[in-house]
C-alpha cells in the first residue's frame, strides 16, 4: 500500500466508520504471512541465546541494553544496537531484511565473555522457538503507557504518521486484536505470563524496573547465572540509566524505519503512569477495564493491578 494512496483512504474510511475493518484485514494478512513464513522457522535456540521478548514500546531497548552489558561485563560497545542484536521479526522480507545482524551469525556470542547474545522479538510466545537451553526475558508495561508511547513513536513522529489520521483511531485499534503494531496487548501479556513458572523464563514489570534499576540488574544477572563483581554491576547500571541511554539515542534509533522524515527518538520519556498526556481520565479507566475483562475472558490470572497503575494518572 503506497503512502500517498493510503492516507486519504484511511481518512475516508474513518469518517465512514469502517477504518477498523481495513486494519482487521491488514492484521489477518500479516498473520497469514507469518504463519507461512515465520522468520524463526527452523531455528533451534541454544545456550548462547537470551531472548528479549516484549510487546512494542515496553522497555525493549532498555532490557536489551541491560542484558547486553551484563553479557559483555559492562563493556558492550556497538555503533547501533542491531549490529549486535538480531531482530528476526524485521529481517524476514522487504526493505527491512538487512536491518539487523542475521540470527545465524555467531559473531556476537563468540565475542562475549559469557558466550551469549541477545535476540529481540515482539512476537507472541506461540510464535517464537523454545528450548530449555535458552533464556527468555519479557517486560510487561502498563498498556495505557504502551498506547501513548506507541502513538507518539509510530504516528506523531514515526513511520505511520502519513497514514494514521487520529489518536481516536489509534485508541480504538489498541483496544482490539487489530492493533497494527503487534496485535493484542492482552493476548501477548497472557501468553508470556502463562510461562512464568519455567525456570528459563523471567517476567519483569516496567514499573519495577523504573522503581529499582540496580535491583533489576541484579535480578537479571542472577537469572542468567552470572557472578559479577560490584564494579561491573555499577557500570551496567550506569550504561542502562535513562540519562546515559538518552545520550546515545542514535545507537537505538530506527533510522532505517523512517524514510519519510527524521526518525523518532527511542528514549522519549520512559515514564510510568504518564498516559494522561494523551488519554482522558475516562479513557484511562476504559483501557484498564477492557484489559482486565479480556484477561479474565482468556482465563489469565495476570495480576494487572500489580503491574499497572489502575485509573487516571
**Rg value:** 19 Å
Task: Return the domain count.
Answer: 1
Structural class given helices, strands, pairing?
A: alpha/beta
According to DSSP, the number of beta strands is 4
Largest sheet: 4 strands, parallel
Question: Secondary-structure blueprint of this entry?
Answer:
Blueprint: H1 3-15, H2 19-36, E1 49-53, H3 60-71, H4 107-111, E2 117-121, E3 135-140, H5 143-156, H6 167-174, H7 185-193, E4 201-205, H8 206-211, H9 213-223, H10 230-239, H11 242-247, H12 281-297, H13 304-307
Parallel strand pairs: 1-2, 1-3, 3-4
Helix pairs in contact: 3-10, 7-12, 9-10
Characteristic key phrases:
single chain, 13 helices, disordered N terminus, 313 residues, Rossmann fold, alpha/beta, four-stranded parallel sheet
Write structural notes for this entry:
The structure is a single chain. By secondary structure, the protein is an alpha/beta fold. It has a single domain, classed as P-loop containing nucleotide triphosphate hydrolases (Rossmann fold, 3-Layer(aba) Sandwich), CATH 3.40.50. Helix content is about 40%, strand content about 5%. The protein is built from 13 helices and 4 strands. It has helices at about 5-15, 20-35, 60-70, 105-110, 145-155, 165-175, 185-195, 205-210, 215-225, 230-240, 240-245, 280-295, 305, and strands at about 50-55, 115-120, 135-140, 200-205. It has a 4-stranded parallel sheet with strand order 2-1-3-4, with helices on both faces. Helix 9 crosses helix 10. The longest helix has 18 residues, at about 20-35. The protein is globular, with a radius of gyration of 19 Å. The two termini are about 40 Å apart. About 35% of the residues are buried. Residues about 1-5 and about 255-260 have low confidence and may be disordered.
Amino acid at each position: 500500500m503506497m503512502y500517498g494512496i493510503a492516507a486519504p483512504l484511511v481518512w475516508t474510511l474513518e469518517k465512514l466508520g469502517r477504518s477498523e475493518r481495513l486494519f482487521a484485514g491488514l492484521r489477518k494478512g500479516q498473520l497469514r504471512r507469518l504463519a507461512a513464513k515465520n522468520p524463526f522457522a527452523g531455528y533451534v535456540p541454544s545456550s548462547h541465546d537470551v531472548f528479549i521478548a516484549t510487546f512494542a514500546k515496553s522497555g525493549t531497548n532498555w532490557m536489551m541494553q541491560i542484558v547486553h552489558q551484563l553479557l559483555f561485563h559492562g563493556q558492550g560497545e556497538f555503533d547501533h544496537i542491531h549490529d549486535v542484536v538480531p531482530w528476526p521479526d524485521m529481517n524476514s522480507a522487504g526493505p527491512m531484511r538487512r536491518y539487523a545482524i542475521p540470527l545465524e551469525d555467531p559473531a556476537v556470542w563468540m565475542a562475549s565473555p559469557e558466550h551469549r547474545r541477545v535476540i529481540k522479538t515482539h512476537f507472541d510466545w506461540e510464535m517464537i522457538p523454545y528450548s530449555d537451553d535458552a533464556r527468555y526475558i519479557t517486560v510487561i508495561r502498563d498498556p495505557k503507557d504502551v498506547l501513548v508511547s506507541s502513538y507518539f513513536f509510530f504516528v506523531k513522529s514515526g513511520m505511520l504518521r502519513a497514514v494514521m489520521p487520529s489518536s481516536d483511531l489509534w485508541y480504538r485499534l489498541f483496544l482490539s486484536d487489530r492493533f497494527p503494531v503487534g496485535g493484542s496487548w492482552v493476548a501477548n501479556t497472557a501468553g508470556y505470563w502463562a510461562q512464568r513458572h519455567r525456570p528459563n523464563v523471567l517476567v519483569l514489570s516496567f514499573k519495577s524496573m523504573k522503581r529499582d534499576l540496580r535491583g533489576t540488574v541484579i535480578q537479571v544477572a542472577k537469572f542468567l547465572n552470572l557472578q559479577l563483581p560490584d564494579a561491573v554491576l555499577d557500570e551496567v547500571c550506569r550504561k542502562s540509566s535513562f540519562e546515559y541511554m538518552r545520550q546515545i539515542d542514535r545507537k537505538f534509533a530506527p533510522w532505517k524505519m523512517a524514510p519519510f522524515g527524521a526518525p523518532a527518538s527511542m528514549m522519549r520519556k520512559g515514564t510510568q503512569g504518564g498516559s494522561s498526556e494523551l488519554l482522558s481520565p475516562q479513557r484511562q479507566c476504559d483501557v484498564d477495564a477492557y484489559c482486565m475483562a479480556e484477561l479474565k475472558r482468556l482465563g489469565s490470572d495476570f495480576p494487572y493491578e500489580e503491574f499497572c497503575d489502575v485509573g487516571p494518572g
